[in-house]
Amino acid sequence: MFGVVPPISINNILYFSKNMELATFGAGCFWGVESIFQKIKGVVKTTVGYMGGNTKNPTYEQVCTDKTGHIEVIQITYDSEQIKYENLLEKFWEIHDPTQLNRQGPDIGTQYKSIIFYHNEMQKRLSELSKNNQQKNYNKKIVTDIKPALDFYPAEEYHQKYYEKHGLSSCKI
Question: What pTM did the predictor assign?
Answer without folding.
Answer: 0.86
